[in-house]
């Protein structure tokens, strides 16, 4: 699937490739997570399969089963608008299907663990004892994360947790440049931007220009590097060695077989879209960012046990509350921060409620 989708995109699968041969022999495609996909994804796959199968019918004549939870977060459209386990599961169901609860404040069940400060929330999920134990057994962090709605809050929490970890921080600086499609502008001093300015830019899917890490910190991969080895966008890793050109990291997964999957992450060049800035930003950096905390949107494919949910920042789109509370496989592992004890923010609640945003047309 191309990274930059438009209304005429196709998948990069040559008609004479082994993958194309496999697709021609395919009897059924099961596509999960469809509510999170942009329509251009389906159109790109449809065009590709029609071409590969030489059959001008839907998906080249291959039966396709689409599945997924329509209560979850829909795809992001740029500039777009718009006794207790049983009780908890019922509450999750009502969160999305009770029209009286849509786009209104809903009460949290009393049996859900609540905290009064961000520091307390962090301590519930990543205690100092846990961080020290992780030095010998990194897999204990595999099922833990703090979720919040905004990237700025994620970055702040990650910085706090990095400071709590033992060891010396290492800051890795990116190589940034601006490419101009207009040759006249590229030669004009007025349109030239300094390196300092370029490094201040933080496109949503980019790693930071100044990436600060410590050995044994948690990072998330931001690009598909090698899907066959599981190195896909969204996977979390633990950094074991920090080099100038390569990161050595362990994939975060259950270590029941006693074998760690060690991977080497190189620096790669990432570019913005043409309409993001008056130039194309190219950034050569490790395609990772700290991931003790992550956005609720980014957590959508994660299965966790120990989850901290920071609701101080207001939710802003369909399904975020449902996704946040359904990430944990253990009710006892959910910890919620509704508001800081000293906060005067109007959108935070003092009566044990939080916002629930639902777009009824997205519920099938």
From TrEMBL:
Its EC number is 5.6.2.3. Residues 2-88 form the DNA helicase Pif1-like DEAD-box helicase domain. Its cofactor is Mg(2+). Pfam families: PIF1, Pif1_2B_dom. GO terms for biological process: DNA recombination; DNA repair; telomere maintenance. It catalyses: ATP + H2O = ADP + phosphate + H(+). GO terms for molecular function: 5'-3' DNA helicase activity; ATP binding; ATP hydrolysis activity. Keywords: ATP-binding, DNA damage, DNA recombination, DNA repair, Helicase, Hydrolase, Nucleotide-binding. InterPro entries: DNA_helicase_pif1-like_DEAD, P-loop_NTPase, Pif1-like_2B_dom. It is an enzyme of class 5 (isomerase). Residues 196-240 form the DNA helicase Pif1-like 2B domain. Belongs to the helicase family. This is ATP-dependent DNA helicase. It comes from Choanephora cucurbitarum. The lineage of its organism: Eukaryota, Fungi, Fungi incertae sedis, Mucoromycota, Mucoromycotina.
């Amino acid at each position: 699937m191309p990274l930059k989708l438009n209304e005429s995109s196709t998948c990069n699968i040559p008609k004479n490739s082994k993958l194309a041969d496999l697709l021609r022999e395919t009897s059924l495609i099961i596509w999960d997570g469809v509510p999170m996909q942009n329509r251009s994804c389906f159109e790109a796959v449809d065009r590709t399969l029609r071409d590969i199968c030489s059959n001008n019918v839907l998906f080249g004549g291959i039966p396709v089963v689409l599945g997924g939870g329509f209560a979850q977060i829909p795809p992001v459209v740029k500039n777009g608008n718009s006794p207790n386990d049983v009780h908890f599961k019922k509450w999750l169901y009502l969160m999305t299907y009770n029209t009286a609860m849509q786009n209104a404040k809903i009460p949290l069940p009393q049996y859900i663990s609540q905290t009064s400060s961000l520091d307390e929330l962090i301590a519930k999920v990543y205690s100092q004892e846990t961080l020290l134990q992780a030095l010998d057994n990194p897999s204990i962090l595999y099922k833990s994360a703090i979720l919040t709605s905004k990237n700025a809050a994620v970055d702040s929490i990650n910085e706090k947790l990095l400071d709590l970890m033992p060891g010396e921080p290492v800051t890795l600086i990116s190589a940034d440049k601006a490419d101009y499609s207009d040759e006249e502008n590229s030669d004009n001093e007025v349109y030239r931007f300094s390196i300092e300015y370029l490094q201040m830019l933080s496109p949503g899917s980019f790693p930071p220009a100044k990436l600060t890490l410590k050995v044994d910190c948690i990072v998330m991969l931001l690009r598909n590097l090698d899907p066959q080895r599981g190195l896909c966008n969204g996977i979390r890793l633990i950094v074991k060695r920090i080099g100038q050109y390569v990161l050595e990291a362990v994939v975060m997964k259950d270590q029941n077989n006693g074998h760690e999957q060690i991977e080497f992450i190189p620096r790669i060049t990432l570019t913005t879209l043409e309409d993001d800035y008056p130039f194309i930003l190219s950034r050569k950096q490790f395609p990772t960012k700290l991931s003790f905390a992550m956005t609720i949107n980014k957590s959508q494919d994660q299965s966790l046990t120990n989850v901290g949910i920071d609701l101080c920042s207001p939710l802003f789109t369909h399904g975020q509350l449902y996704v946040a509370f359904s990430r944990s496989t253990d009710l006892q592992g959910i910890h919620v921060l509704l508001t800081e004890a000293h906060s005067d923010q109007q959108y935070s609640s003092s009566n044990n409620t939080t916002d629930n945003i639902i777009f009824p047309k997205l519920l099938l």
